[in-house]
Amino acid sequence: MKYFYPILCFLLFSFIACEPSASSTTSTTTSTAVPTPKAAPTGTPLPSMSQEEMMYLFNNCDYIDYVFYSTNFSISQNTQESIRSMLNMISPTTATLNPNCKAIGRVFYQVKGENYAEADLYFQEGCTYLVFLEKNKPIAGHILTDQGVAYFNNIFQRAQNMAPGAQ
Prior knowledge:
This protein is an alpha+beta fold.
């Protein structure tokens, strides 16, 4: 565990220039609010994913699917570069589960066609984090990096601009 943060930071800085491919994003409409990056101030503190699990995802994940609950689009990544970039948007800083916030979507991390990990995505004012789940129960949580918040802000803004009647 003592090497988790240095390795994660090294990986983050190694791939910070890589951005997920926008071509694998499909969208039609959305009305998601654009938050500012903040960790939840109150609620249940969540533990960290283990270093081994994060490294396993980094080295073996071959597909990520973001399914949003109240929008008409999803995001899928299937290249190593874009998957690693998405994983680098997960901060080593643990999240606090804020009871006033609701998940806006579910993230599926697959290895060889099988779901290896699932997480709920929280993305609203005061709540920009992922809560990893096992049997639909929270087991770990991490806030999104500033790069992750900017990425999702950009995605939701573009989707909003593409909505019928958007100028």
